[in-house]
């Protein structure tokens, strides 16, 4: 379920966060689904529980999950993640990546197709 590279220079908690975000984006984890407990996940992944705790705290800070005391951590609804600074950062990153893609010769129709393939919402928006 999780791909962690202990040889990577990227911290394990960041890799874990990316894995959770990917599961949420691909709707494997849907809103209000409960996440595994820190203790159980630490045992399964054979990593320090403090690493899981750090990832969960950052995911909560970013709005991806919420905590119910005594019950655990849950996936937040996508609309709760809305953050103007985060949106601006993503727009800037997309602009940079798309500009580079066009510069190296990737056809704009291929880029449009990628966007359609990524998001069912993009397909609906074309009508």
UniProtKB/TrEMBL annotation:
<feature type="domain" description="HTH gntR-type">
    <location>
        <begin position="10"/>
        <end position="78"/>
    </location>
</feature>
<keyword id="KW-0804">Transcription</keyword>
<protein>
    <submittedName>
        <fullName>GntR family transcriptional regulator</fullName>
    </submittedName>
</protein>
<dbReference type="InterPro" id="IPR036390">
    <property type="entry name" value="WH_DNA-bd_sf"/>
</dbReference>
<dbReference type="Pfam" id="PF00392">
    <property type="entry name" value="GntR"/>
</dbReference>
<keyword id="KW-0238">DNA-binding</keyword>
<keyword id="KW-0805">Transcription regulation</keyword>
<dbReference type="InterPro" id="IPR036388">
    <property type="entry name" value="WH-like_DNA-bd_sf"/>
</dbReference>
<dbReference type="InterPro" id="IPR000524">
    <property type="entry name" value="Tscrpt_reg_HTH_GntR"/>
</dbReference>
<dbReference type="GO" id="GO:0003700">
    <property type="term" value="F:DNA-binding transcription factor activity"/>
</dbReference>
<dbReference type="GO" id="GO:0003677">
    <property type="term" value="F:DNA binding"/>
</dbReference>
């Amino acid at each position: 379920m999780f791909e962690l590279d202990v040889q990577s220079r990227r911290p394990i908690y960041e890799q874990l966060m990316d894995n959770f975000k990917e599961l949420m984006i691909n709707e494997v984890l849907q809103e209000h689904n409960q996440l595994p407990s820190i203790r159980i996940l630490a045992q399964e992944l054979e990593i320090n529980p403090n690493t899981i705790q750090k990832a969960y705290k950052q995911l909560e800070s970013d709005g991806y999950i919420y905590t119910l005391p005594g019950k655990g951590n849950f996936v937040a609804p996508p609309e709760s993640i809305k953050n103007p600074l985060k949106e601006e950062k993503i727009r800037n990153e997309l602009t940079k990546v798309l500009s580079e893609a066009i510069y190296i010769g990737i056809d704009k129709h291929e880029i449009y197709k990628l966007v359609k393939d990524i998001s069912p919402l993009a397909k609906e928006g074309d009508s």
